[in-house]
Every structure is written in C-alpha cells, then in structure tokens.
Amino acid sequence: MYTKKIEEDLNCGIRVAMKVFGGKWKLCILEAINNGIVRPVEIHKNIPNSTLRVIEMQLAELLFFGVIDKCSEDVYPKKSEYEITPFGRTILPILSQIDVWGVTHSALVKEKQQELEV
C-alpha cells in the first residue's frame, strides 16, 4: 500500500471538500445525477469531454465517500444506477451557487480562454 510522505491536512475545510469533491468531473457528475441522469453511460454522454473510464473512476470515489449510492438490477446485461445520498445532497446548494457564479462570469472566462488559444 502506498503511503504519502507528507500527511494530508484534513483539518482544513477546503481541503476536506477538495478531497471529496475535487477531481475531474465530480461536480458535473453530481449535477447530472441530480437531474435524473443516473446510468454511467448516460452520464458520460452528458459530459462529452470526459471518458467513460474517468467517469467510472469518479463515480467510485463519490461512492467511497458516501456521496452517492449504487443501485444494481439483477438482469443481464447488468444495469447500474446511482443516486445522491442525504450526505451528498448537502453539497447541492453550494453546487447551485457555483453554477450561478459560472453563468455570471462565463463571458469573461470565454474571452480569456480565446486569448490562451491565440
């Protein structure tokens, strides 16, 4: 088992939040599940810049921390669906505020992104 040389400081609220919700696509995944997109393949289609492998890795981490639950039907082919737990729902108001901030500042970010691409 890999042991980090420098211990993580999980006494800092921001670091705790980044540990659970940081990572590529986690907030987008939660938004998708909250909007009723609950199967991994559907989530992947909803986030076109992602890969299914990364989506599955992020789902596994969210599952590990208890942010989501996995429901599997005993059919062939096996169907897995995800739902947000009560613990996971505590982030939704903050996610909503992040969305408002992003929409409010999207023009500036798009402009800066174009400058990078020139």
Automatic annotation (TrEMBL):
Q: Which UniProt keywords apply?
A: DNA-binding, Transcription, Transcription regulation
GO MF terms here are: DNA binding
Domain named HTH hxlR-type: residues: 12-110
tRNA processing as a keyword? no
Query: What parts of the sequence cross the membrane?
Result: none
Q: Which SUPFAM superfamilies match?
A: Winged helix' DNA-binding domain
The protein's name? Helix-turn-helix transcriptional regulator
Classification lineage: Bacteria, Pseudomonadati, Bacteroidota, Sphingobacteriia, Sphingobacteriales
